[in-house]
């Protein structure tokens, strides 16, 4: 098992050295964005498309249960304010349809950029008197997947203006910033080499429209921040913390970058 | 435990009906280590049963060679309107169950 | 179509001169009805342990699984047995056996005469490129089997971040 790791690192190093030689300044994205499912195998696409087989739907089902469960000192459920749901498939909480398309957004009260996870935790604190849920916890993943699922098929609609421009610019900067032992930036793989094969994987454009995703190699559902962490570990960089300003900035930038792509939550990837 | 059962809502009497059950479970192999380097004990759903009209129609004995969040797809013959009762137990002794209804028409 | 996207049912034949890695669905090959010799290889030995030494013939069972797995953690597999599933003849159980996994026995699926169809589908873990065997025990006590090779580039034994 671990004996495979040095070999993997070595090939990655060689490949990335070649990529870095070709690297130049950021190019404008040409053509409409392509979802990761375009780069996935037919098997994976079929698994994602089949709600009965898509393992991510188990988290959506869990999210449904949690949505209806009273929580916190106020003993209120999400449904108490946001309407009760009827079934999980297809999306059936009219009030929640379209909500995920507006995230990350600027929270009116705190004036800070928050994602769906942030909103759920803010809601819990303010309206339910409930403690925040941790990133990658089954509960937060379930609720996030459930809410995003209500907007499945709808394109994200993030507007960049004076309220979030600074965060957006930071995200754009991070996206182009070389990092890690391999000294690579996101652009090197996902902009300049999307569609090419790296080891056994096809490099996608790295869009965020399917999150939280069921990743076969994770054997479970995971958030965008978890994926960004994996990317950073992949270039041997010190990863940022889940929920950090850096990841939020990247998330805002990525959402802007994926404009027009429909939400695919829960997407399935390798 | 969270589970989903998928089968048609209605079937003709005598028809062969497909059913899929999926369960949210890590199916720990016992070969993994936590962040502190400690071995995570094996814990998989080892037995899954399905009863229809009170009779056992399917049983699976599973090992760690089954994927996490196991899903199993099988068939049964529709006889009468009734419930499919799924039950399972993992190595730690935790039990789960799920119920689904099938309406059988003639 | 690239190999990544090919999903084929295939037969791995031991007998020399037989076409291997066939993309056809039929079991009509010189491997049909071949008796598996438990002494030939690890997979056959592991299978023999399942049947407690009872003889196993290739045939009547067909495995549908990708030639190249997206990820060893979750390899889809469908097993069909050519059997009418009546009171007179039915499949008692379908057993999945791995060639190289640390634990040979992946799962056993018990059916009965009321199952209607001798077919199961699930997703399994494979630690490396290997053959998987699906055994079917019929109501008369006979064992039939099919084997399929799956190429695995991402082992189920490796953890991901």
What is the structure about, briefly put?
The complex is a heterotrimer of chains A (270), B (106) and C (161). With 270 residues, chain A is mainly α. Chain A is built from eleven helices and seven strands.
Question: Could you please describe the fold and organization of this structure?
Answer:
The complex is a heterotrimer of chains A (270), B (106) and C (161). Chain A has 270 residues and is mainly alpha-helical. Chain A has eleven helices and seven strands. Chain A has helices spanning 4-22, 36-39, 42-49, 56-67, 78-82, 116-128, 138-149, 165-176, 186-190, 224-234, 245-257; strands at 105-106, 113-114, 197-198, 201-202, 213-215, 220-222, 268-269. In chain A, the strands form three sheets. A three-stranded mixed sheet of chain A has the order 6-5-7. A two-stranded antiparallel ribbon of chain A has the order 1-2. Chain A is globular. Chain B has a five-stranded mixed sheet, with no helix packed on it. A three-stranded antiparallel sheet of chain B has the order 1-3-6, with no helix packed on it. Chain B has 106 residues and is mainly beta. The mean pLDDT of chain B is 96. Chain C contains one helix and nine strands, in the order H-E-E-E-E-E-E-E-E-E. Helices cover 6% and strands 34% of the residues of chain C. In chain C, strands 1, 3, 5, 6, 8 and 9 form a six-stranded mixed sheet that branches. A three-stranded antiparallel sheet of chain C has the order 2-4-7, with no helix packed on it. Chain C has one helix at residues 42-51, and strands spanning 56-58, 61-64, 68-69, 75-81, 91-98, 105-110, 119-124, 130-138, 143-152. The chains are: A mainly alpha (270), B mainly beta (106), C mainly beta (161). The interface between A and C is medium-sized, with 22 and 16 residues.
